[in-house]
Amino acid sequence: MKAAIVILNYNGKEMLRQFLPSVIKHSSADVIIVDNKSTDGSLDFLLMSYPQIRIILNSRNEGYAGGYNQGLFQLGDQYEYFILLNSDVEVTANWDSTVLSFLDDHPEVAGAQPKICSYINRSYFDYAGASGGFLDMLGYPYCRGRILHTVEEDLNQYDDVIEIDWASGAGFFIRSKVFMDMGGFEPKFFAHMEEIDLCWRVRDQGMKFMVVPQSVIYHLGGGTLSKADPYKTFLNFRNNLFMLYRNTTEIRFLLIFLLRILLDAGAALHMLLTHGKDHSVAIIKAYSEFLKERRVVKKKPYLASKLSFAPREKKVFSIIWTYYIRKKKIFSGR
C-alpha cells in the first residue's frame, strides 16, 4: 500500500475530536492511530466516532520516540511511506498527495515535510518546523521562518522546495524502508529532537530531506508539553546533547561541548530571569543526566568525517551569535 498517516495519541481525546475531521476529509492516505496507553477515553471516542480507523495499542507510554517505534515496526513493510502527524494539526486539501508525488519523483530523497504554519496565528509560521529545519555548527536547531524566539509572517517568501537538515516531527514524511533500516528513532530521547537525530543519521547515508511548501498544515503546538513546562526544557537540552554525542566523533564533540557549556550557561541565566528557577534548573539537570547516561545512547557504527549539515551555503556557525550579536533574526537576513 502507498502511505499511512500515523497519529500518535496519549490522552489526546480532545485533540482528536478537534483535528481528526480535517485529516479524514483532506487526506488520500490511510489513517492509523497509535495509542500510548491512554486513560482519558480516547479509545472509546475513536471506536464510537471513527470505527473505520485502525488502532494500534502500545503496551505502555514510551513517548514520541518509543511510541512511534512500537507502532511503525508493527506496520513493517505494509506501506511504502509513513506520514507521522501530530494530533494537534489541521491539514489542507491535497497536503499528503502533494508531498507523496514529490517523493515518488525523487527517489534520492528519504523524506520531507510540508510548510507548517501556526494554527493560532494562521498567517505566521509555526515554531516547530516552519518551512524547513536547519542546524548550526554547534547543533542548535532553527527553521526557515523561525529563528529562536522570532517567528516570521508567511508572505510566501519560503515557498521554494529546498534541501533541509531536518524535517519536523509535527508532519514528517519518510520512506518506510528507510525508517526500518535506520532502526527508527532513538528511544532514549523519549520526546523532542528524535526526528532531527534520525534525519542526521539518514543524511549520513547520502539521502536527502526536503521541504515541500506547496503542502500546508496548521499546528497548534503544546498539545502534549507546553513551552511553560520545565520538563520540555529538560528534554530539549538533554536530547540535543545526546544527538551531538552520538553523531560526531569524540574530538569534535568535545570541542562543541566546551562551547555549548558556555552558551547553555547563558541560557540557564536567561531562563532564570525570564521563566523562573525551574527552567534554569532543568538545563542543569539536562547536563547532569547527559553525563550519566551518554553511554546508553549508542554512537553510530560509523561517523562521517565532517558534520553532515546542509549544503555549505546554508551553514551557520552559531545561530546564537547571529541572532543576539549580529541582530539577524530572520532566515533571509542571516
What attributes does this structure have?
Spore Coat Polysaccharide Biosynthesis Protein SpsA, Chain A, single chain, 334 residues, two-stranded antiparallel sheet, 2 domains, 9-stranded mixed beta sheet, 13 strands, 10 helices, alpha/beta
User: Major β-sheet, in short?
Assistant: 9 strands, mixed
The backbone outline, from C-alpha atoms, is globular
Count of discrete domains: 2
Low-confidence stretches: 304-313
CATH superfamily of the largest domain: Spore Coat Polysaccharide Biosynthesis Protein SpsA, Chain A
Mean pLDDT: 93
CA radius of gyration? 19 Å
Give the beta-strand count. 13
Q: Which CATH architecture of the largest domain would you pick?
A: Alpha-Beta Complex
Q: Would you give the CATH topology of the largest domain?
A: Spore Coat Polysaccharide Biosynthesis Protein SpsA, Chain A
Strand content: 15-25%
CATH C-level of the largest domain: Alpha Beta
Q: What's the number of helices? A: 10
Q: What is the N-to-C succession of helices and strands? A: EHEHEHEEHEEEEEEEHHEHHHH
Describe the structure.
It is a single chain. Helix 1 (about 15-25) links the parallel strand 1 and strand 2. By secondary structure, the chain is an alpha/beta fold. Helix content is about 40%, strand content about 20%. Mean pLDDT is about 95; it is low at about 305-315. It starts with a strand and ends in a 10-residue tail after the last helix. It contains 10 helices and 13 strands. Strands 1, 2, 3, 4, 5, 6, 11, 12 and 13 form a 9-stranded mixed sheet that branches. It has a two-stranded antiparallel ribbon with strand order 7-8. Strands 9-10 form a two-stranded antiparallel ribbon. The longest helix is centred in the last third of the chain and has 25 residues, at about 250-275. It folds into 2 domains: about 5-220, Spore Coat Polysaccharide Biosynthesis Protein SpsA, Chain A (Alpha-Beta Complex); about 230-334, no CATH class. It has helices spanning about 15-25, 40-50, 65-75, 95-105, 175-180, 195-205, 230-245, 250-275, 275-295, 320-325, and strands spanning about 5-10, 30-35, 55, 80-85, 90, 110-120, 135, 140-145, 145, 150, 160-165, 170-175, 210-220. Helix 1 (about 15-25) packs parallel to helix 2 (about 40-50), helix 7 packs parallel to helix 9 (about 275-295) and helix 8 (about 250-275) runs antiparallel to helix 9 (about 275-295). The radius of gyration is 19 Å and the shape is globular.
